[in-house]
Amino acid sequence: GQSLEQPSEVTAVEGAIVQINCTYQTSGFNGLFWYQQHAGEAPTFLSYNVLDGLEEKGRFSSFLSRSKGYSYLLLKELQMKDSASYLCAPMDSNYQLIWGAGTKLIIKP
Amino acid sequence: NAGVTQTPKFRILKIGQSMTLQCTQDMNHNYMYWYRQDPGMGLKLIYYSVGAGITDKGEVPNGYNVSRSTTEDFPLRLELAAPSQTSVYFCASSYETSGNTIYFGEGSWLTVV
Questions:
Q1: How near does any CA of chain A get to the CA of B10, in Å?
Q2: How many residue contacts between A and B have a Cβ separation below 8 Å?
Q3: d(CA A99, CA B6)
Q4: How far does B103 lie from chain A, in Å, by closest CA?
Q5: B8: cis peptide before it, omega within 30°?
Q6: How does pLDDT run across A10-39, given as a tens digit for each residue?
Q7: pLDDT value at position A1?
Q8: Distance, CA of A37 to chain centre
C-alpha cells in the first residue's frame, strides 16, 4: 500500500530554524515535491527531489533519502509570512502524486 | 502572466443543481488536473488529462465529469450537486509528469446547500 506521514502541526519562533519531516511508502518512486499552502490559497511549488541528498534554495532546503522513505524541509531565518501548511507529495511509479493533509507551521514572534 | 485560471471563485449551489467549473491555462501544458480539498484534508485527484481528447479518472471521480477539447481548457462538470461535494476545487497543470512542477489555479469554493 501507499502511505504518507507528516506531523499535523509544528510551532517555531520567528528568526529560528525549523525542520518538517515526511515519511512515505509508495509503489515505485519518481521524486518528491514540497509545496507551501497559505490558508485560503492554492499550493505553490517549493522544491523537487529525485536523488538522495540536500537541495538548497535560499532560506528553504529539502532533503531526501530514498532508501529510508524519508524527506524533510528545512526553513531558516523564519519569517511570519512562512506561517502556512507545508505539503509533502511523493510521486509513485504511475506518476501520481500522493498528497497528505500537510504540516501546519505556526510561527510565534 | 495568467498561468492557470479557474472560475468562478465562489459559488453556492442547491442540491440537485448542476454547474461547470471552468479552467484554462496559457502555459501550453499537456497535463491538467482537477483536485478537491476538504477542510484539514489532503488534495484528492478527481480527474486528469494527459492531452487534448484524453481524460482519465482519479481517486474520487463519482459525481463529476470532464472534457478536454483543447490543450488550454479543462472544465469540470458537477451533475446533481450533493452536500458531499462542498469543497474547494483546484485546477492544475504541468508540462509533463516526472519532475515537472504542477501549477495550481487560485481555487473555487463551492458550497452545496
A1: 12
A2: 44
A3: 21
A4: 7
A5: yes
A6: 999 999 999 999 999 999 999 999 999 999
A7: 77
A8: 11
Candidates B9, B94, B97, B103, partner chain A, best to mutate (most A CBs within 10 A): B97
- Gap from B108 CA to chain A (nearest CA, Å): 10
Q: Do B97 and A30 touch (CB under 8 A)?
A: yes
- DSSP letter for each residue of chain B: ---EEEE-SEEEE-TT--EEEEEEESS--SEEEEEEE-TTS-EEEEEEEEETTEEEE-S--TTEEE--SSSSB--EEE-S--GGG-EEEEEEEESSSTTPPPEE---EEEEE-
Confirm if B98 and A95 have CB atoms less than 8 A apart: yes
Q: What is the pLDDT of residues A38-93, one digit of tens each?
A: 999 999 999 999 999 999 999 999 999 999 999 999 999 999 999 999 999 999 98
Is B90 in contact with A33 (Cβ distance < 8 A)?
no
For A:52-91, CB contacts with B below 8 A are: 87, 91
The grid cell for B101 is 512542477
Complete edge-to-edge strand list for the sheet that includes strand A18-25: A3-5, A18-25, A70-75, A60-65, A53-57
Angstrom distance (rounded) from CA A41 to CA A10: 20
Q: How confident is the model at residue B70 (pLDDT cuts 50, 70, 90)?
A: very high
Longest dimension (CA), chain A: 43
